[in-house]
Amino acid sequence: MNKKAESFQAYLKEKNLSAFTVDEIKDDPFHTVVFRSQLNIDGNNLPTIVIADDSIYSMIRILVAPKVPEGSEGLAKLLNTYNQTFKAFKYYVDNKGSLILDISIVSADESLNGDLVYALFQTVIEHLNESYKNIMKEIWK
């Protein structure tokens, strides 16, 4: 397990947080570790992962919707507004058509600051509680 993942796992243990399962990616040159969980937003469980590896970046990734329609101008405009408004996270549609919300975390050393990750989760949960219905309205149009 890489040092950032070890530090995050220690933080979870210290705070007695058991919301994550841990998967080490075998034969990965960056020694990637994925912490899996889910966020309950508006009665929907959104798959959520924290990715920690040997690079300077860690990531919180949330699957907001598994499939979005192509060419939705309303959705694109809404997501662009969110991307311009919120510096810490970005929405995008991946190559499978899923709507993803990524939060990038830069680590200057070999640790992953658990308090920072917790604060980012609080921020994104607050945002999703306010915006999820609007996003889904655009997807269902």
UniProtKB/TrEMBL annotation:
Protein name in the entry: YbjN domain-containing protein
Organism, as annotated: Megasphaera stantonii
Source lineage: Bacteria, Bacillati, Bacillota, Negativicutes, Veillonellales
